[in-house]
Specification:
Length: 682
């Protein structure tokens, strides 16, 4: 999508935006649009009875009650003067028909439609132009899925086939980053987004950190990186971690002091992760092994003339039900039968071996039968077994739930789905499903050993009830609850601090509003209670981004460039360097909060409050090298930079952002030029 053309801020504030549909999503869209300081009109077929966002009535310039498909209603709302129209009613057919009417009346208006018909909307984009469609459930599903992962990753998205993830990491004493300056952590595969010292509050603005600060244990780092691989626990979807991995972790954790504790913990972990038949089989197997060893020892001691091999096989025969074979005429050697001289206690022990062995054989048959029946049912049902631990329990397989399940599957996260109605088996062939009421389903979902529970049903009160039941069963579980009402979310969030209550409409409204200004939103994630959007720009002449260095864009607008592609070239750069200058036709993808997108929309950059004082060049070659560094970081031409270097000491006349100034001083030091920064702000 194209970035906005440069006009004055006052002209931008007079832009008119039209929102059709005043249910939850429409109200949140109006609230977000007004943060851009623009005029907003609205159309709805009935007078809203309930304002989920109480301030919305005072934000609307003109409210029209009528059918948004009617030209007369659109005319009354000012469609010919509109910059964008957001069609977000719950009737998808109405939205599409209103899009046709809007395009006919205003060929230049940008149309944002709420629709889930992807193929159809792609055709509409090609024919209508300046058109984009979103489905709120698809947008909010990412937030629910990421919250359920319960790891340091707070965002996942794919660019040009590369999986990128956003990590929020609390620094430990022996971490890779401890003791380093923040700017040294930036690589071609990683960009720092935020650094919060242990004794400080999170920054109020996105992309605000001190490049010279030292990272210490307890600090919080947020960074984006190209994902090298998924965690080990994500390599076994639909099942618990393999036995060999648990055994390896058990062995690594053993010390002289905690040997007994580790053995008990390993046994409890194994015991709790197995079903009843397998637990009985394990106990019987251990018992049989002990009795087998006891039998070998006793027979060898009582009959020293027999070999160890004969004692071994004699005990095995007894365990397999061969009591009559041994004591009914079969001799160990040419000597008289053992029963003639065997004491009563050893004969009774031999009988016990046979009885226990027969019972063990019965358990083995039961285990084999259970495995065969289970495999047959799985063959017909084509659903894997319910995970035993470290999985996500997803309650509610409506459209949102299905989308959340799909995202978790893409990330190889084990999960189990729960719903009260039977679903088409082909919908989730690789996900174990439980069809039952919440009370019964939670008992079958191994909730005590689950990582997270996501409740996305359509009834917010029922979602809360299920969430509280789940927390009572497992207080350590991550609880994510869906709410369709922002006020409801704000009311219950302080009462249940262990729960994340997400309102899908509020999440989606940011994307709809951003798209209304011409931006292409690819994905988004949450950072410090703020929505950060992955936004794509196609640079044109007159854009507020055209002709700027990436460092100026990053620190002037408060955004993070993560992909750059030069015009008419197939190659692209992930995590591009700051000295790249944008030109018309280039493609840029950035991470940006709403405030950063607003600044780009208005062309209002943050003030440059720093300058660089150059003292001297230590060598003759340093003059040319220093001029090259100055030209690349400040954006001036090399001839001007060389003139500055020939007249030292001096203060460079070009004001810079703090990151630019400090970066220039570091680069000059590498080429034997002494310099320091000067703060020129108030």
């Amino acid at each position: 999508m194209n970035s906005t053309q440069t006009t004055t801020s006052q002209e931008k504030k007079q832009n008119l935006f039209l929102v059709c549909g005043l249910k939850s999503l429409g109200q949140h869209c109006i609230a977000v649009l007004k943060e851009y300081n623009v005029k907003v009109s609205a159309i709805d077929d009935v007078q809203p009875e309930y304002w989920e966002v109480p301030e919305v009535p005072s934000l609307i310039e003109n409210l029209i009650i009528g059918d948004c498909r009617q030209p007369s209603v659109l005319e009354q709302a000012g469609i010919r003067q509109c910059r964008s129209i957001l069609l977000v009613t719950r009737n998808e057919r109405m939205n599409i028909e209103a899009a046709f009417a809007s395009r006919r009346m205003n060929p230049h208006v940008r149309i944002i439609v709420r629709s889930d018909k992807q193929n159809f909307t792609e055709l509409l984009y090609k024919n209508l132009g300046n058109f984009v469609a979103f489905e709120p459930t698809h947008l909010s599903a990412h937030a629910f899925a990421l919250a359920a992962l319960g790891s340091e990753a707070i965002g996942y998205f794919t660019l040009e086939g590369q999986l990128l993830r956003v990590i929020e990491h609390q620094v430990q004493q022996k971490d890779w980053c401890n003791g380093k300056s923040v700017h040294r952590l930036n690589l071609t595969t990683r960009r720092i987004l935020s650094h919060t010292p242990v004794s400080s509050q999170p920054p109020t603005q996105f992309y605000e950190w001190n490049p010279e600060a030292l990272v210490q244990a307890g600090d919080t780092l947020v960074y984006i990186e190209v994902a090298p691989e998924l965690a080990l626990s994500e390599q076994y979807p639909g099942k618990s971690q393999p036995f060999w991995w648990e055994w390896q972790q058990f062995v690594r954790g053993i010390t002289a002091k905690n040997l007994q504790q580790q053995i008990m913990r390993f046994w409890q972990s194994y015991y709790q992760s197995q079903n009843q038949i397998r637990r009985i089989a394990t106990i019987y197997a251990i018992t049989v092994l002990i009795l087998w060893l006891m039998g070998i020892v006793l027979y060898r001691l009582y009959y020293p003339h027999i070999s160890l091999q004969e004692a071994f096989y004699a005990t095995a025969v007894l365990l397999l039900g061969g009591y009559g074979d041994l004591f009914g005429g079969v001799k160990f050697t040419s000597q008289p039968q053992p029963s003639d001289y065997m004491p009563w206690w050893l004969r009774l022990f031999s009988l016990g071996l046979t009885l226990i062995g027969q019972a063990f054989v019965g358990v083995l048959y039961a285990l084999l039968t259970d495995a065969l029946v289970t495999s047959r049912l799985q063959f017909f049902n084509r659903h894997p077994p319910i995970p035993q631990r470290n999985h996500v329990v997803l309650i509610g397989l409506n459209r949102l739930g299905q989308r959340v399940a799909g995202i978790l599957q893409e990330l190889n996260q084990p999960l189990v789905g729960i719903d009260t109605t039977t679903l088409d088996q082909s919908t989730f062939p690789k996900i174990p499903l439980i069809v039952d009421n919440a009370n019964a389903a939670l008992a079958m979902a191994n909730l005590s050993y689950a990582k997270s529970i996501v409740v996305v049903g359509d009834d917010r009160m029922e979602n809360l009830e299920i969430g509280l039941m789940a927390h009572a069963i497992n207080p350590a579980i991550r609880l994510i609850i869906r709410s369709q009402d922002r006020q409801f979310s704000e009311n219950i969030a302080p009462l249940f601090p262990y729960a994340q209550v997400l309102c899908g409409a509020a999440l989606s409204a940011e994307v709809f509003a951003c798209a209304a200004f011409g931006e292409n939103v690819l994905s988004f994630f949450h950072l410090n209670a703020e929505i950060v959007m992955v936004t794509e720009y196609k640079i044109e002449e007159g854009d507020t981004l055209n002709g700027l260095l990436l460092s100026q864009i990053a620190h002037g607008y408060g955004v993070v460039p993560i992909l750059y592609q030069k015009a008419r070239q197939h190659n692209y750069s992930l995590m591009p360097w700051d000295d790249v200058k944008l030109n018309a036709g280039d493609r840029l993808i950035v991470l940006a909060a709403s405030s950063g997108l607003q600044r780009i929309e208005w062309g209002e950059m943050l003030p440059r409050l720093w300058q660089v004082h150059i003292e001297k060049a230590l060598t003759k070659n340093a003059i040319a090298d220093g001029a090259e560094k100055i030209a690349s970081i400040t954006g001036c031409n090399f001839t001007t930079a060389r003139q500055w270097m020939n007249d030292l000491p001096r203060v460079l006349p070009t004001p810079l952002y703090k990151h630019q100034a400090q970066g220039l001083v570091r680069q000059l030091a590498k080429v034997q030029v002494l310099a320091n920064t000067i703060f020129i702000g108030q």
